[in-house]
Design goal:
The complex is a heterodimer of chains A (114) and B (115). Chain A is globular. Chain A contains no helices and eleven strands. Chain A has strands at 4-7, 10-13, 19-25, 31-38, 42-51, 54-57, 64-66, 76-78, 87-94, 104-105, 109-113. Chain A has 114 residues and is mostly beta strands. Chain B has 115 residues and is an all-beta fold. Helix content of chain B is 0%, strand content 50%. Chain B is globular. Classes of the chains: A mainly beta (114), B mainly beta (115). Chains A and B meet through strand 4, strand 5, strand 9 and strand 10 of A and strand 6 and strand 11 of B.
Chain lengths: 114, 115
């Protein structure tokens, strides 16, 4: 079982560059989300989606865009990278079937903006 | 607004001892769920245990148990008989109030287990 797959695992960007972090899940989960993890800050929610075509902002959405054209994929776009976006990014998915279902996480993408 | 608070940045315990990691939460939703995750140094997020707000009993999963005190809005994780492999970051999280909202996380507690 692949679960949640994030690519790339590591990325270095120059300030001002744009890029897309990929996230795909093969569990047919309706709910998907993106987090960033910074030292001492825990996981902060960037954007989330409750299904194809539906997205919403989380706690720290500025500088990021998302779209959800299929159930499987939920890419995160950095429009113009800034050093403040240096972080570890996690994608997660959850089933909508039961309230107690946990979120499954990808392995993370370590992004450095120089 | 929902909030998860973990007040212990770091905890230290010896092997075979029990340890309690604190978590308090705030929500106006009468129906909510609380989760604990483990993040070892390798970085992956590992689900440990879940407690629903209407569950009558405290959740248990092997050496993990959740001390759920609803009136105090606390959901502390208890790890019995600590092992060296328990050294990791531990996160408490809550299901969002709106259906489909992603989990909201606390800042985490780093647990160090020594021999």
């Amino acid at each position: 079982n692949a679960g949640v797959t994030q690519t790339p695992k590591f990325q270095v960007l120059k300030t001002g560059q744009s890029m897309t972090l990929q996230c795909a899940q093969d569990m047919n989960h309706e709910y998907m989300s993106w987090y960033r993890q910074d030292p001492g800050m825990g996981l902060r929610l960037i954007h989330y989606s409750v299904g194809a075509g539906i997205t919403d902002q989380g706690e720290v959405p500025n500088g990021y865009n998302v779209s959800r054209s299929t159930t499987e994929d939920f890419p995160l776009r950095l429009l113009s990278a800034a050093p403040s976006q240096t972080s570890v990014y996690f994608c997660a998915s959850r089933s909508s079937g039961l309230q107690n279902t946990e979120a499954f996480f990808g392995q993370g993408t370590r992004l450095t903006v120089v | 607004a929902q909030k998860i608070t973990q007040t212990q940045p770091g905890m230290f315990v010896q092997e075979k001892e029990a340890v309690t990691l604190d978590c308090t939460y705030d929500t106006s939703d009468p129906s909510y769920g609380l989760f604990w995750y483990k993040q070892p140094s390798s970085g992956e997020m590992i689900f440990l245990i879940y407690q629903g707000s209407y569950d009558q009993q405290n959740a248990t999963e092997g050496r993990y148990s959740l001390n759920f005190q609803k009136a105090r809005k606390s959901a502390n994780l208890v790890i019995s008989a600590s092992q060296l492999g328990d050294s990791a970051m531990y996160f408490c999280a809550m299901r969002g109030e709106q259906a489909g909202t992603a989990l909201i996380f606390g800042k985490g507690t780093t647990l160090s287990v020594s021999s």
